[in-house]
Automatic annotation (TrEMBL):
Entry EC no(s): 7.6.2.11
Source species: Mycolicibacterium chitae (Mycobacterium chitae)
InterPro entries tied to this protein: AAA+_ATPase, ABC_SmlMolc_Importer, ABC_transporter-like_ATP-bd, ABC_transporter-like_CS, Mo/tungstate-bd_C_term_dom, P-loop_NTPase, PotA-like, Transp-assoc_OB_typ2
Keywords, sorted A to Z: ATP-binding, Cell membrane, Hydrolase, Membrane, Nucleotide-binding, Translocase, Transport
Subunit details: The complex is composed of two ATP-binding proteins (PotA), two transmembrane proteins (PotB and PotC) and a solute-binding protein (PotD).
Protein name per the record: Spermidine/putrescine import ATP-binding protein PotA
Location of the ABC transporter domain: 2-240
Single Gene Ontology MF annotation: ABC-type polyamine transporter activity
Function as written in the Swiss-Prot or TrEMBL entry: Part of the ABC transporter complex PotABCD involved in spermidine/putrescine import. Responsible for energy coupling to the transport system.
């Protein structure tokens, strides 16, 4: 449906998009996710036709559209700051596109006044605004206005809808409701959605596949579970969900499935990632906090374990967030559920942390992002 073929976009000598090369399938909900300034909007604007690639090509349904103006492309865009016509009713706002293309004046199948009425009524039903058709935008909530903007972008039946942080202006609760609505609408209509967001939870919830971007480059493309369970890089691991990341060295192989890693002041078996690391080479070990088990006695099951000291506890409702320190001082975070029957813990308590080697992943060595780094990345959009 959409092919991004080795696309580079430079602004003067600044590289905003660096060799983006991927394809989006028909009917797919595809997200571009990454911190502010990583090139998401620029990539989307090239698909829409508001920007031209410096090198490389964009193809829509097999056709090279790299130099085709936006209105000639069969795609439509919804922005965060959508502008509805304030003096028009909801119904007329949605009918604006087909009318400006004179669809209502033309004769024949799929044309004429009746066709415009049918399409507008259908789309208002899809976005659940039938009862609000005669209202003006000012009489609607933020979420309802955004649904009008959606209906308006969909009424010309684009083959893809491009959405640039469309929920960014809404409060958290409404954003959650709209995430479900968007997903439902996309499924119902079967249209390709290309969705830009810096919110990892939003991307994980809605997408069939996600392209994680960093500093103009696509670091990984995959389904939400692939990206969460098998991140390709330390950046992806830290940006998507929470992750324990520890510097170490890969020292050898345990068996067909596992390699050996010197980390946390000991040697552990771990799952190798997709990048080959030479024996003795630097590496980063990742374990998700919910995969870390905590016990008072050394575990006996088929797991790797290290002794650790409790440094802090935070009750977070469904889980207890335990901060610990390994013997070499490395921080460890464990999310402990109610099923792990632990006695009341206090800072200073000696425990064992453990995980099965399948729950760990060896990544190429890279600087480990701090909490401050991650906060800065999410600063503005
Ligand atoms: N028209 C432009 N001229 C110069 N630099 C630009 C222009 N548009 C975007 N950039 C720069 O390109 C980088 C990527 O921007 P953008 O695609 O908007 O990022 P994102 O949407 O991921 O936050 C940013 O550093 C931004 O400042
Ligand atoms: Mg942007």
């Amino acid at each position: 449906m959409i092919e991004i073929d080795h696309v580079v976009k430079r602004f003067d000598d600044y590289v905003a998009v660096d060799d983006a090369d991927f394809a989006i399938g028909a009917g797919e909900f595809f997200s571009m996710l990454g911190p502010s300034g990583c090139g998401k909007t620029t990539t989307l604007r090239m698909i829409a036709g508001f920007e031209t690639p410096t090198t490389g090509a964009i193809r829509l349904e097999g056709r090279d559209v790299s130099r085709m103006p936006p209105h000639k492309r069969n795609v439509n865009t919804v922005f965060q700051h959508y502008a509805l016509f304030p003096h028009m009713t909801v119904w007329d706002n949605v009918a604006y596109g087909p009318r400006s293309q004179k669809l209502d004046k033309r004769k024949g199948k799929g044309k004429g006044k009746e066709e415009v009425r049918r399409r507008v009524d259908d789309l208002l039903e899809v976005v659940r605004l039938t009862d609000f058709a005669q209202r003006k935008p000012a009489q609607l909530s933020g979420g309802q206005q955004q649904r009008v903007a959606l209906a308006r972008a969909l009424v010309n039946y684009p083959s893809a809808l491009l959405l640039d942080e469309p929920l960014g202006a809404l409060d958290l609760k409404l954003r959650h409701v709209m995430q479900f609505e968007l997903k439902r609408i996309q499924r119902e209509l079967g249209i390709t959605f290309v969705y830009v967001t810096h919110d990892q939870e939003e991307a994980l919830t809605m997408s069939d596949r996600i392209a994680v971007m960093n500093a103009g480059r696509v670091e990984q493309i995959g389904s939400p579970t692939e990206i969460y369970d098998r991140p390709a890089t330390v950046f992806v691991a830290g940006f998507i969900g929470q992750a324990n990341l520890w510097h170490g060295r890969q020292t050898g192989r345990v068996n067909r499935d596992f390699v050996e890693v010197d980390v946390l002041g000991t040697t552990l078996a771990a799952t190798p990632g997709d990048t080959t690391i030479e024996s003795g080479g630097h590496a980063t070990l990742m374990v998700r906090p919910e995969r870390v088990r905590v016990s008072m006695e050394p575990p006996t099951a088929e797991v790797v374990s290290v002794p650790a000291t409790v440094t802090d506890l935070t009750f977070q409702g469904p889980v207890l967030r335990l901060s610990l320190a390994a013997a070499d001082g490395s921080p460890i975070v464990a999310h402990v559920g109610a099923e792990q029957q632990l006695p009341m813990l206090r800072p200073g308590d000696q425990v064992y942390v453990a995980w099965s080697p399948e729950a760990s992943l060896v990544l190429p060595a890279a600087d480990i992002p701090t909490t401050e780094d991650l906060e800065e990345m999410l600063g503005d959009s």
